[in-house]
Write a structure and sequence with these properties.
Strands 7, 8, 9, 10, 11, 12 and 13 form a seven-stranded antiparallel beta sheet that branches. Strands 1-4-3-2-5-6 form a six-stranded mixed beta sheet, with helices on one face. The chain is of the alpha+beta class. The chain contains 19 helices and 13 strands. Strand 3, helix 17 and strand 4 form a beta-alpha-beta unit. About 6% of the residues have low confidence.
Length: 569
Amino acid sequence: MLTLILIGLLGGLITAVSPCILPVLPVVFLAGGPDAPASPGARAGPAARNRRPYAVVAGLVLSFSFFTLLGVTLISALGLPQDILRYVGLGLLILLGFGLIFPPVERLLERPFARIPQRQINKEGGAFALGLGLGLLYVPCAGPVLAAITVAGARGEISADIVALTVAFAVGTALPLLAFALAGRRVAERVTAFRARARKLRIAAGALMIALACALAFNVTDAIQRALPDYTSAAQRKIEDSDIARQQLSGLYNNSNKDLARCEDGADELRSCGKAPAIDGITKWLNTPGGRPIDLASLRGKVVLIDFWTYSCINCQRSLPHIGAWQRTYQDSGLEVIGVHSPEFAFEKDPGNVADQARKLGVDYPVALDNQLTTWDNYRNRFWPAKYLIDAQGTVRHFKFGEGQYDQTEDLIRTLLKQADPQVQLPPKTGQEDADLTQDRTPETYLSNLRIRGYIGDPLIDDKATVYRMASRVPLNKLSLGGTWTAGYEYFTAGPDARLAFTYKAKNVNVVLSGNGPVEVLRDGKVTATLRVTGAPTLYTLVDDDSAHEATVEIRPGAGIQAYSFTFG
């Protein structure tokens, strides 16, 4: 648990200094400023306001922790809209803004605290209420740690580990904010102009809160945050997405998956890997009668193949024909295939996109949309594609990460079917050749500042438009940038004169692009096509040959085009 607490604490610290919290920092800073004067011409001394920063941050941490952990459960139980907490926070922020401008409103807001004997605590009631409102607006600032807390809260599985993680995360977020609020108090106490103009500053702070609430309501702050570099993304990934963090967060609210550690990837024989974890946290089901969910317990007596995939992954696409062939060949013999679509990119969470791509790829068996990666975590999965074989008693007997070994996997399916029903008459094998699809072929490459491989050229600058010089020679399986690019975690964004050259060996080359504009395609220096990119991220084919070749493909995208990954076949 100590490791989990440390991960939560560090994750909270990073979140509290990330761009997502910038819009509320001015309010936190001014929260430690001058209090209302007791009478005309008077001003409050330091003692009258010395606890305002603590009250604001305490309120923020309390509402943030409570509603992050239990908010979804309470909202669902009460049948309220999912965005009700956001609107409550906005309303409270506006009300407090008016309280700073109009003293009678402030006295009304402090009335709930009037019965508390200590006068100073009573005076901090408005600051505490401000923190409560800010905490509601602070909830959306999320990373993997906060996602784990939110998912556990939504499922009502509140364990000691989850509570410890939540408290640690909340403390981590509180420390930088408290330092900022104390800095605001210190400035207000030391600068004479602040003390002399306490009333005017309170009006300005109130107007700022109202303006902030309106900006948040109309998503003006989103545009501001998009314009700022995500300077904490690298640190967040290193802490929250590290191997240690994954091990701690995976299976945090379900112990049934720990037995999967008994088995190894691609074993050549069936083994007992523990009871199959549940398929849960599913946003929507495709290809089932009426969209109804499938419970693994209802499939006892059948052999189940679970395939984790995502539609823009070329490796997954190459494995789908094998899985479809097994479904068609063995479904009458007791095989049930379930695809678990666990998105790699944000655009893959859209049910319409998944349904459309599944239809184009010929996926007609049931597909569960695992948008929150709940089932992915249940199985401790870390790969696309990944196949899990479950026997008729509900025990995981085999799993295979990545492509290949199709002939071996089919043999194991046939063995499990025979074990489930010794009298079954199995049809001939599908005849799919288990060729080594990955031999000598250029591997899939992500355009991500943390996951890219094979890059040569000027050092990548995270989340900042930078002019790059393309390498004079790009070796096999390497890529280089030219012109202006912004290197982000999920994609690279093209700027003026953007170019990208990639030397590959494959039959076909594909790239995932989004945005609006032209993309010129060159092969070995000669223009071969001009793509017209429109809308959401889509897989575009750059090269499609009958046999594998070694060549250099270059793209010259228009400014604003976003490139996610290259895949090769």
